[in-house]
Amino acid sequence: MCELLGMSANVPTDICFSFKGLKERGGRTGPHRDGWGVAFYEGKGVCTFKDALPSYESEIARLVSDYPIKSCAVVAHIRQANRGRVSLQNTHPFTRELWGRYWTYAHNGQLHDYKDLPVARFQPVGTTDSERAFCYLMSELDKRYPNKPRSRKAAFRFLQKKAKTLQQLGVFNMLLTDGEYLLTYCTTKLHWITRRAPFGIARLSDVDVDIDFSRETTPKDVVTVIATEPLTLNEQWHKMQPGESQLFRYGEPI
Amino acid sequence: MCELLGMSANVPTDICFSFKGLKERGGRTGPHRDGWGVAFYEGKGVCTFKDALPSYESEIARLVSDYPIKSCAVVAHIRQANRGRVSLQNTHPFTRELWGRYWTYAHNGQLHDYKDLPVARFQPVGTTDSERAFCYLMSELDKRYPNKPRSRKAAFRFLQKKAKTLQQLGVFNMLLTDGEYLLTYCTTKLHWITRRAPFGIARLSDVDVDIDFSRETTPKDVVTVIATEPLTLNEQWHKMQPGESQLFRYGEPI
Questions:
Q1: Which residues of A touch B (CB under 8 A)?
Q2: Which domains does chain B carry?
C-alpha cells in the first residue's frame, strides 16, 4: 500500500509542514520505501518532483520539505510497490493534458483485472494498476466530453461515478486534480481536514514538530489537507467512509 | 531568447557539469531570468524540475546542479520571455504522452502567426508560441500515425520535416526527446559535442570549473551534449547550420 497527501487552498500555501510528516513514513516511521512524488500547481502550470528512492533519505524530498513552494493544489504520494517494479515510470503522481489543462492523479490501493480496463486516447507509460486506472478515467472523460465541457465541475461529477466502478476491482483511494478542483475517492482509508480562522497550533504525529498556523495565515485563508492517515495528533480529521467521495475547490468542500 | 541544453547518452550520466554552466546564464552571465526547467529520463519515466525564478538564484537549480541525477536523455531550458508572461505554465520543457511514451520538448526562438498553427488532440496549457508549436508537432504526429508506428525513428524523421515548416514562422531552435531518441533542429544557434574515449579535461566558460571526464566515465561511454552556445572553452563543438537537424540515439548521432 501507499500513502496519499493532497492540499486544496484558496491562497497559495506551502505544504512543508504536512510533507515533513509524510516523508518520514517513506521508509522511517512507515514502510513505503519504493519512491515518492509530489505535484504543485501554480495557476494552470504544474511542477512535479519524483524520486524512486525512499523519501526519508531523498535529497529532493529534503528540499521539498524545507523550501516553501506555494500552491493552491498539491498531490503527493509515497509508494510501497505491489503492481509494477520500483522505477521512475511507475512513480506517482501521474499527469496528462486534456482540454488545455494538466490533470494529476495518485492512487493508494491494489486492483485486480486492471489490465482489461479500456484505455483509448490516454495510454499508460509504466506498468502499474494505478496508472492504467488513471488512463481509463481520462479516456472515459474524453469519450464523454469530446469537447471541453462548459462546467468542469460536471466533469468531476462524472469522474466520481467512474471511480465508483473502479472500486469493484479492489482498493481504490485516490486524489485527482486539475489545479482548481481536487477530487478524493475513498474505499478504505482517507482523511481530510479544513483549516480556517481562527487558526490554532498543530502537532505532527510522525516527527516532533508543531506549527502555529495563526502566524502563517490570514483570516481569509481556507486550506484543506487530505491524507491517508491523519498527520497531526491534536486536530479532528474527517474520516472518509468506503465509497465516499468529496470534491474540493480552492480549499472548500463542494 | 532563451538557452537550450540537451544530453543523449548510452549509459545513465549526470548533467551536473553542463547544468552548472547553463544556470549561470539564467540571470548572472546571461539575461535569461524568466524561469528555467530540466527534464531527466530514467528509462521511459521522466522527472521535470521547473521554476519561474531565475536559475542562478533558484534553490531547485542549486539542487539539480549539485545532485547527480543519472539519465540517458535530458532536455533543459532557461527562459527570457518574449511571448507569454513569466509563469510556471509557460516554463519549458513541456511534456505530453503519446503511444505510451512521454515526449519532452524545449524551444529557443520566436514565432509569428503561431496562433493559427492547427492543434488537435494536444492542446497548449500556457500561452507561449513554443508550447503551441509543440502541440502542433505532436498533433501532426498523431494524425500521421493514429497507431504506434513500428519504427519510432520514422516518427522522428516525420517530425524533422514538420520542424522545417515551423522555420517559416521565425526562429525555431528545438530539442525533442522520447527518452531514447533526441531530435535537434537549428535555425539560428545550436551546438553539439559527442564525448567518447579517450576522454579529456573540459573547462566551463561561464564559471571557473573544470572536470576530468576520464575519471567519471568508462571507455564505452558515449555522451552527446547539445547547447545554444558551447559550454566549454577548450573543446571543439559542432556548430549547426540554419535548417540543419540532427537525431541522436543513446549518445550517437544517427
A1: 41-52, 59-60, 63, 67, 87-91, 95-102, 121-126
A2: 3-109+174-253 (3.60.20.10)
